[in-house]
Structures are given as C-alpha cells and as structure tokens.
Amino acid sequence: MMRIIAFCFVFLTFSCGVSEDKQAEKSEIATLSDAIEKDPTNTVLLLERANYNKSRTNFESALYDFKQCLALDSLNADFQFAIAEIYFELSKGPQANSKYPGLAKYHLEKAIKINTKDFKSHALLGELLISYAKYKEAIEHLNSSLKIEYNQAKTHLLLGYTFKQLQQEEEAVNCFRNAININPEYKEAYVQLGQIFHLKKDTIAVVYYDNALRIDSTDELVLYNKAVFYQSLLDWNKALEAYVALHKAHPFHASGHYNLGFIHMELGLHDVATNNFSDAIYSNSEFFEAYYSRGSCFETLGNIAQATSDYKRAIIINPNYTYAIDALKELERKNKNYKK
C-alpha cells in the first residue's frame, strides 16, 4: 500500500514598507500611463507597461498592451509571441477560459510564419502541444527550437518529458542529461532521471535524487521517492534513514509514516508499526489504509477490540475497501468460534 504523493512561505511585512512600495508602484505605473496617454502609438512605452504588469502577474492588463502593440505592427513576431505567452499563462488558471490554449497556439503559429527562426515560439508551441498529448508534433517543434538555439535547458527537459511519455527512455535520458549539462542546477532534470532509474531499480537513481536534494534539501517528493526506492529494494536500514530525513523536513507526511509502519510490520515489530500508523492517521484523518493496517497490527498483538474499531473506521471512510471488510468478517468469525 505504498503511495507517492505530489506536492508556505511566511511573509513578514511592515506597514511602513508596504505603503512605500505601493506608492512607488503606483507612481511608476501612473508615470507610464501618463506617457502613453500623450503618445498612444509608442510601442516602447506600451511594451514597458505590458512587461511591468506581466512581471506582477497582472496578465489581463499586460495582454491589453501587447494587443495594442500588435495592432500597430501585426508583422512583429515578438508581439505575437508575447500575446501567446500571456494566453498560455492565463490557461493555467483554475477558471481559465477554454479558448486560451487555442488562442496561444494561433499566435505562436503566426509568430513562426513571420519568423521561422523564432526559437522561443517553437519551444512554447512544443510545450503547448504536450498539454494536448500531441507528442510527435511537440517533438518536431522542440527539436526545431533546439536547432536554432541549443542552450535551452528547459526545452531539453520538455523534449525528454515528451520522449518519456512515448516510452522512449533512452532518448528521454539523453535529453534530461543535456538539460543538466546546460544548467547543472536544474533540479527537475535530476528528478526526472531519478524517477526513470527508480523504476528500473537501478541504484543510480539515488545519485540523481541526491543531486536534486543538494539543490533543495527539503524537496518533499524527492525525499519520499528516495525512501520508497530503498524500500523497494528491501534495504530496510537505508529506507528507515531516508524516512527519518523526510519527516525531519515534513513531520506530517502521512504516506511516509504509513510506509514506516509497513517496514516495521515486515520486521515483525507490530507494536512499533501501530505507532507509525497512528502518526499517519494523525497526519491524515481520512487515511483508511492506515486504519486497516493498524487494525491488522492490533489483531496480531491480541487487541481485538482496537482491531475491530480500526477495521470499522476504515470501512466508514471507504465502504468499498475490501481488505478491511474481509478482515472484519474474518475477525468476527474467529471471535464467534472462540466464544463457542
């Protein structure tokens, strides 16, 4: 029952500083807007305001100015790309307009038609096509981008991810390594390589995970994956050490506590395992597998009342969880025979 889960900044501000920052921001945008009002066809000013808003994730405002620029020069590939990039960012929002990806694609194709050597547009179109699961088309554009400008770590990463989706692992590995050669601090490339070799049960996976942790020692997913990798090799000591490192950074990682319980069950330490499963439940009160596993430990230890309670709780959370249903039936059958 091992599960890999996917992934707070604390801001301390002083009222004085915030007020000054807001005044400076207002002054800057007001100055730009005043200048544009006096010279509305000045694309330099429009771009400056657009990029100002873009840097502050005011995408709608940035889009307005980029469109103004495009209206003034419809054959400018940079303007087409800028608009496509904004639509692409807007499409990531939870309530995004379903037309945004198509609009991004339209402007990227326009940009490439105007300038076939526009490597940024090829790269972004490739990334967009990945989201459509059009992997072969994505590979064409990503490769086109890299032929024009090779030193793009992210584009190599995207190409590697695309090959990975097509189960062409050798090509994927080469792409992720290319990304690292360009940017040795590219954590995501190390993570991708770690995951590929993890599935092969190749210990080089740990080398890649450790490189990712060198860049970010508290990365939750990497810490967890490293522990799961050792667990998959039945290397209990290293797995236990890795879970300790995980919980030092993320004390309430429920799946980590659950897997510790699994290891201690394998080692016959059911009393220790119950504590691990309790930690998992404390971290996630709806963790029905942890209730079931703790119940199994209690049953082994002879605590029938607590075992019964845990099985029932697992079933309440997930009425279709057959492991708990069958365990409870068997426990009740045994108790009925014992009482006779």
Task: For this entry, give a set of tags.
340 residues; mainly alpha; Serine Threonine Protein Phosphatase 5, Tetratricopeptide repeat; 0% strand; elongated; disordered N terminus
Short description:
It is built from 18 helices and no strands. It has 340 residues and is mainly alpha-helical.
Give an overview in words:
The chain has 340 residues and is an all-alpha fold. It has a domain at 252-340: Tetratricopeptide repeat domain (Serine Threonine Protein Phosphatase 5, Tetratricopeptide repeat). The chain is built from 18 helices and no strands. It has helices at residues 15-38, 43-55, 59-72, 77-90, 100-114, 119-131, 135-148, 153-165, 169-182, 187-199, 204-215, 220-232, 236-249, 254-266, 270-283, 288-300, 304-317, 322-339. Helix 5 packs antiparallel against helix 6 (119-131), helix 12 (220-232) packs antiparallel against helix 13 (236-249) and helix 16 (288-300) runs antiparallel to helix 17 (304-317). It is elongated, with a radius of gyration of 27 Å. The two termini are 35 Å apart.
